[in-house]
From TrEMBL:
The keyword Iron-sulfur is assigned to this record: yes
Names of the cofactor(s): [4Fe-4S] cluster
Protein name: Adenine glycosylase
UniProt keyword terms in alphabetical order: DNA damage, DNA repair, Glycosidase, Hydrolase, Iron, Iron-sulfur, Metal-binding
Family per record: Belongs to the Nth/MutY family.
PROSITE patterns per the UniProt record, alphabetical: ENDONUCLEASE_III_2
Organism: Kribbibacterium absianum
Length: 285
DNA sequence: TTCCGGCAAT
DNA sequence: ATTGCAGGAA
């Protein structure tokens, strides 16, 4: 009689086989340097492998260690991040590096210590544990979720992570945690190109609001303007220049130009988040 | 729950 | 024009 553990054992065998068949020799799999692995995890949050490849190498060449990143100018860090998206991740990574450097420079390996660092949540903490330290971890992210839903919840809809997580936990191997999760990631990534995205049946799955014309797009444009002003040797970005640039962007796209007060509000929010500092009618990073 | 970037594939 | 991405924080 087929027990639940038999089903799980067959599942594990299949994932191992598929993982071997579909193995991706990604650059960040060729290092065990915790900092380098951490940077890869941070970059890969909501960002495709194809875009991180190249940028990860360039980042490590420029900021080769926790100490180097901690000592770097934040604006340089932000500039190096451009194109990866979600600028907050760069700020969090920089701040976390400063915290780790203050604590002696060793990247922690416990989930508790990792999650205390800005920008590191349960998934990233588990990724660092598994890939850098080869330690047991419950790594539940989109590719892993895809595999479990496809294999173990083939018909279910609106599946909560609370139903998936115990299974992920039950599958954590005694040895080669790293290889197990590589297999899950590679099989999951392949599944999404092969069958209708199983992750869509997760309760976690959410559609994102439209980017074009969004507030998000304006924020990103302002960050670029701040970096350009700095690059040009200016004391900062003036409200007038920001209003003009954003106005041109919006008008060119057939949208109404934002009011100066709105642009000022966006800049002040960026300042409050630590992207820049305000002095009078100038914002500098 | 909502917000946060940017891009390639479709 | 839509989709989804090795998620985290407020």
């Amino acid at each position: 009689m087929a027990s639940e553990s038999d089903e799980l054992a067959r599942f594990i065998d299949k994932v191992r086989r598929e993982g071997e068949r579909l193995y991706r020799d990604l650059p960040w799999r060729r290092t065990r340097d915790p900092y380098a692995v951490w940077v890869s995890e941070a970059m890969l949050q909501q960002t495709q492998v194809s875009r991180v490849d190249g940028r990860w190498q360039r980042w490590l060449a420029r900021f080769p260690s926790v100490e180097a990143l901690a000592a770097a100018d934040q604006a340089d860090v932000l500039a190096e991040w451009q194109g990866l998206g979600y600028n907050r991740r760069a700020l969090a990574l920089k701040r976390a590096a400063e915290a780790v450097a203050d604590q002696g420079g060793e990247v922690p390996s416990s989930v508790d210590a990792l999650v205390k660092l800005p920008g590191i949540g349960p998934a990233t903490a588990a990724g660092i544990r598994a890939f850098a330290f080869d330690l047991p971890a419950v790594y539940l992210e989109t590719n892993v979720r895809t595999v479990f839903l496809h294999e173990l919840f083939p018909e279910a809809e609106d599946v909560p992570d609370s139903a998936v997580r115990p299974l992920v936990e039950a599958c954590v191997p005694d040895r080669d945690v790293r290889g197990w999760y590589y297999a899950l990631l590679d099989y999951g990534a392949w599944l999404k190109r092969t069958v209708p995205n199983p992750s869509r049946r997760s309760r976690t799955h959410a559609r994102q609001s439209r980017f074009e014309g969004s507030r998000r797009q304006k924020r990103a444009a302002l960050v670029r303007l701040l970096l350009e002003a700095r690059e040009a040797g200016l004391p900062g970005l003036s409200l007038d220049d920001a209003v003009a640039a954003l106005g041109a962007q919006e008008t060119g796209a057939g949208r109404p130009e934002p009011a100066p007060a709105d642009v000022e509000g966006l800049l002040d929010e960026l300042a409050a988040e630590g992207f820049c500092q305000r002095t009078g009618l100038f914002w500098a990073c």
